[in-house]
Amino acid sequence: MTERNHFLIFPRIMTPDSLKRLREWFRANAAELPWRPAGLDAPRDPYAVWISETMLQQTQVSTVRDYFTRWMKRFPDVEALAKAEEAEVFKYWQGLGYYSRARNILKTAKIVAALRQAQEPCKMPETRKELEALPGIGAYTAGAILSLAYHQREAILDGNLVRIFSRLYELDFLPTDKGSANKNCTEIYWEYAREVADSPKAYMHNEALMELGRTVCKTKSPLCETCPLRGECRAFQECRTTEFPPAKKRTEKSWHGTVLVVESADEKILAVNGGQKFLDKQLALPHFESARHATVALPAKAEDYINADEVKSVEYCGTFRHSITVHKIECDVLHVQLLTKAKASHLPTENSDKPTAFEWIEKAKAFETFANSFSLKALKKVFC
DNA sequence: AAATCGGGGTG
DNA sequence: CACCCAGATTT
């Protein structure tokens, strides 16, 4: 048995013929999207490709649409973005989630801007190696920039292509599964992706497959009767589309905690950046794990954030639910009012094992300062 | 290889 | 409420 046997058993499906039908389907059905303004054959702006593809990670097209348009208006190119403050970048990202993506985008913009030659505009790198070395750019995004913007014969592999390949070839495993025989599961999928990209029309094949996966080869109730590839799709022919790709198992975790809305005598709110269970590395309200219904007294853990002898009052303001990936969070909200004005002495000294920054925010500006809905929900419990 | 990271939309 | 969605990074 060789590592090639997979391809010997399964004959080639993405033939020049089927790829041609894919392209014709795409020309006839391509949606109008803000990141494909100049026709399907025009090379894209690499910066726009980078931003849109990053926004589209784990976020649906319909949601990204408006975010992308707003973003490009404020940060039209790498240079404009590189000069921005992280807080403002977060505001333009607010609601998309996965804030590390926004942080990495800014990091990469600064790196690319620093590479700029004198008098020349900033330009995204043009090789896979250079792109993948940048923060937030992995194999998928690098392939998207290289093919869609530079029209190189580079492959991409995202959830849409995985679903299509799994059904076309009845692949009963996911790229993330453990390797079998001599072949890594990821590599099998990438080989199919490279086959499709081995063409001067790679840019269109890649985008057409993503569009096909989004609008036709959907996870639930795929529209096989309109699919240009139904003639060679094994899962369709055997009426087994619902079996592919195999479902991935995920473990859910429930977590109960307390979030503090600490208000100083001069009406400022304590915010923390770093060292927390959730929303690490971004400005959020202080929170910690606690038992249910344990909010009658101020938990000892809260002394990490405030000095107990400066507390004027502690009020329980309710409980809210919030989901962060697999975590189902239930969080009690405490409104802690202090006798003293905001000052550095309120900050902890020896409790933090991770780098932690603290900030006092004007109460009136609190709602526009936090970029995550976890903190916003807690504020709402107290002030709304 | 597995865990982690958010929020909005949909049925 | 459960599930889905154009992945990357860390452990």
UniProtKB/TrEMBL annotation:
The keyword Signal does not apply. One of its GO terms (biological process) is mismatch repair. Residues 55-215 form the HhH-GPD domain. It is an enzyme of class 3 (hydrolase). Coiled coil: none annotated. Keywords: 4Fe-4S, DNA damage, DNA repair, Glycosidase, Hydrolase, Iron, Iron-sulfur, Metal-binding. It catalyses: Hydrolyzes free adenine bases from 7,8-dihydro-8-oxoguanine:adenine mismatched double-stranded DNA, leaving an apurinic site. The keyword Metal-binding applies. Its cofactor is [4Fe-4S] cluster. Its EC number is 3.2.2.31. Signal peptide: none annotated. GO terms for molecular function: 4 iron, 4 sulfur cluster binding; 8-oxo-7,8-dihydroguanine DNA N-glycosylase activity; adenine/guanine mispair binding; metal ion binding; oxidized purine DNA binding; purine-specific mismatch base pair DNA N-glycosylase activity. It comes from the Bacteria. Belongs to the Nth/MutY family. Adenine glycosylase active on G-A mispairs. MutY also corrects error-prone DNA synthesis past GO lesions which are due to the oxidatively damaged form of guanine: 7,8-dihydro-8-oxoguanine (8-oxo-dGTP). This is Adenine DNA glycosylase. The lineage of its organism: Bacteria, Pseudomonadati, Fibrobacterota, Fibrobacteria, Fibrobacterales.
